Amino acid sequence: MAEMDTSSGGGHKKGPGVKKGKKLSTRVDLTPMVDLGFLLITFFIFTTTMSQPTAMKLFLPKDTEKPEDQNKVKASGALTLILAKNNTVFYYEGELLPDGSNFKSTGFKDVRDVIINKKRSTNPEDFVVVIKPTPDATYKNTVDILDEMTINEVKRYALVDIFDVELQLVAKSLQ
Amino acid sequence: MPKVKVPRKSTSVDMTAMCDVAFLLLSFFILTTKFKAPEALAVTTPKSVSTKAVDQKNVVLITMDKEGKVYFQVNDENPDEKEAVIDAVDQAKALGLTAQEKAAFKRTGAFIGVPFSKLKSYLALSPDQAKNYKAEGIPVDTLDNQMIEWVRAANSAFTGKKMNLLVKGDNDAKYPSFKGIIDALKKNEIFKFSMITDPEGVPAGTDLYKRNQATGGKATDE
């Protein structure tokens, strides 16, 4: 490429053996420049934060002491989801039977089908989802299940404390 | 028959066009890039289908890290409210904070992650010391929920303005910490707050997906 002409070319201006000044090409090899360009692109791609964080709204119900102020849930239209450890979900429809026979287990992948099935099979006015996270559930589980409410357009849902009976059932089922 | 002479072609390609493209992309990325602000608390937020961007005005941020420790922070753009918060807490708990210690709270990016009993000594630390301080988090359990006091202070400091309460939690934080925060908010009659999440696509075939298709994908946040 770039070479210097070191041959002593004689002092004569014009002679039969004198080389004419070669016309140098103006084209430059751009390969290293392209390399550099792509290197910088990669750097900026990796450091950039494209996605802005989003906000998810949550409305809490007001705690009321008086029983007549509390929202009554029609048992038949209720679906209770219990979030346990290791991303497992337990659920039951309606009221929990004393023998725990309608207490079923599922995961976060299949919980959508459970919600959809229940939603399709109940009167929209009675349909309500009760979410009960156990102390072992993670924040991600909670957000995921709330998100599931948005995805499936569940209008009425509540985040409720878990009962001891259910905790015992969960502990028994996980064994 | 004479051999057909194949002219030897040069293997070098003209790089000008490629160079142009590379630098065009480069300038695009340089202009759009927004460097991540250095965060003292490393938190990986969960994903949700919510499409509403976080409002950055009048922010009161409650952070939960992956061990479930809870931190409290007031936006740096509201120095007056920050001062009001620390004054209110100082008075309510009779901590006897000096002006210097209060100034430590007003420092950029300062957050609180200690119980009231240790607040005075924590605020007395220099910025470098505070950075390396192993905070234990604000207690939020049912017996001693100190977040109630912080939220009350923030609530009164933001009187007349719309306080934007944000909860930012780590994926691995356990539910009891979150419940403690919810309880603290309920005690202060705050029934509406936002959780910071990362965006995620709506799964195809679901009700929300169908509605989005019908309404032309317009974001509907209720």
- C-alpha Rg of chain A (nearest Å): 36 Å
State the end-to-end CA separation of chain B: 84 Å
The radius of gyration of chain B is 26 Å
Report the structural category of chain A.
alpha/beta
Shape type of chain A: rod-shaped
Quickly count the helices of chain A. Answer: 4
Set out the fold topology.
The complex is a heterodimer of chains A (about 180) and B (about 220).
Chain A lengths: L30 H17 L6 E6 L18 E6 L4 E6 L10 E4 L3 H11 L6 E6 L5 H13 L5 E3 L4 H11 L1
Chain B lengths: L15 H17 L14 E2 L10 E6 L5 E5 L4 H15 L5 H8 L9 H8 L3 H6 L14 H11 L6 E6 L5 H13 L4 E8 L7 H8 L8
Parallel strand pairs in B: 1-5, 2-4, 4-5
Antiparallel strand pairs in B: 2-3
Helix pairs in contact in B: 2-3, 2-6, 6-7
Structure description:
The complex is a heterodimer of chains A (175) and B (222). Chain A is α/β, with parallel strands linked by helices. Chain A is 30% helix and 18% strand. Chain A has 4 helices and 6 strands; from the N terminus they run αββββαβαβα. A 5-stranded mixed β-sheet of chain A has the order 4-3-2-5-6, sandwiched between helices. In chain A, helix 3 links the parallel strand 5 (128-133) and strand 6 (157-159). Chain A starts with 30 loop residues before the first helix and ends with a helix. Chain B has 222 residues and is α/β, with parallel strands linked by helices. Chain B has a domain at 47-199. Chain B is 39% helix and 12% strand. Chain B contains 8 helices and 5 strands, in the order αβββαααααβαβα. A 5-stranded mixed β-sheet of chain B has the order 1-5-4-2-3. In chain B, strand 2 (59-64) and strand 3 form a beta hairpin. Chain B is elongated and about 110 Å long. Chains A and B meet through helix 1, strand 1 and helix 3 of A and helix 1, strand 1, helix 7, strand 5 and helix 8 of B. Strand 1 (54-59) of chain A pairs antiparallel with strand 5 of chain B, so a sheet runs across the interface.
